[in-house]
Amino acid sequence: MTGSPSFLRRLLRRSASALDSPDTVQPAPQRILITQRELKNYGGSEFFAIEVARALKNRGREVAIYCPAPGKLANIVTPSGIPVCETPAEVPFTPDVIHGQHHLPTMAALAHFPDTPAIYCWHGTRPWVERPPVHPRIRFHVVTSERMAPRLATETTIPEDRIITIPNFVDLERFSRVRKTIARPARAVLYGQSGFYPAELELLETACADHGIALDKVGYAYGNPRPRPEYFLPDYDIAFAIGRSAIEAAASGCAVIPVVPQLAGAIVVPDTLDDWAASNFSPRYFTSASVMDSDWLGRQLADFDQEKVRQVTHAIRDRFSIGPAITAFESLYLRAGSTGPAQGSGSEFGLYLTTMAHEIDAMWGDLECRKVDEPTIQARIAALEAALADAENRTRALTDKLLEQAPAPSGSENS
Question: Is residue 350 a part of any domain in this protein?
């Protein structure tokens, strides 16, 4: 493994060669506008936007974030001199390039700045707000893993040569603490994941208990959001995580086992690191029948090895630091601004809004159906609760009668 080329550096070299433009030398974009749907909760795209913004600011760029729903996380970036604006009109400069995240804020920024080119970062296939917009001024679409690129090209009209892979990253200054690996894992965390069925969580809890491992679940879905993963991740031997969460956990010294709803992955070891990185550390659907039971976890623990965990941690910290990713983004910004004059502010938006009207109508119709169904559902729940209460009262009354009719225990009169 130590003699193999770095996976991240290979991708960045490939991206750089695709972005080279030997005919013209353009000045590097200095004013960057990042769009982000909200900055209320601790999440992956939120910290992606924050960390990219701060890294660009540290490199001397003028940066702003357009976020229609700012929240407490805005307080993390504003002390660095990065304004968080609720509308594009509040952005204090005309950007050289728009770094788009999330569908509607990206399109709003494009509409407000009609002469500005853009790139768009696609973080995942769901929910709808992540859907990648298509517009002539969005010069490149960025994906975080090689295996997302074919899907994006297939499901949209985006040419493959306009889809660039820039892997996820970890800020090593923030995640500076690394745990010392122990021989036998005792603590595990389900980190940054949700959407599991209750039965799946019960299987995972039972599997951990069967192998003497205490399991904590961290996230809004479990009523346990914890804002500083760089503090608590080094307390765990194993992290069940995907994407940036998996990279952060591995950088902190945890053994990583990627899991998603209805599909259990395998522990990340040096020999499988490149393959997991190519899929953004997420199991691929329809490729395995593994479930998160005790037998599955036993197989993963059989591959738990202190030295292998240390090697993965070292490789993650060496190959997935934030610096090369920011360099790749800066190269992409430069290329986006040098592919010809910006265009696409008239009829393109008319076509876009026509498409949106059909989709919003469909979503609205679904919402209205749910509103119609809700009273019926609530009435049914109330009826079932009343029936349950009546059954409990009848059971209690019957129990009391049986106790009254039961013969007194022998010797009770003399006690």
Answer: no
User: Percentages helix, strand, coil for the chain, rounded to the nearest 5?
Assistant: 50, 15, 35
Structure tokens at 150: 């074919």
Per-residue pLDDT reduced to its tens digit, 286-317: 667 788 999 999 999 999 999 999 999 999 99
* 14 belongs to a structural domain: yes
155 & 304 share domain: no
38-60 pLDDT, tens digit each: 898 877 888 899 999 999 999 99
Sign of CA dihedral 293, 233, 315, 321: positive
Asked if 154 and 41 sit in the same domain, the reply is yes
Q: Which domain holds residue 29?
A: 7-169+321-342
How many CB atoms are located within 10 Å of the residue 306 CB? 13
| HEC-encoded secondary structure of 314-326 | HHHHHHCEHHHHH
Which residues pair with residue 170 across a beta bridge?
A: 321
The pair of structure tokens assigned to 241 is 């995580």
Same domain? For 325 and 225 the reply is: no
* Structure tokens given for 218: 């961290």
Rounded to whole angstroms, the Cα distance separating 324 from 64 reads 21
Q: Are 32 and 62 in contact (CB under 8 A)?
A: yes
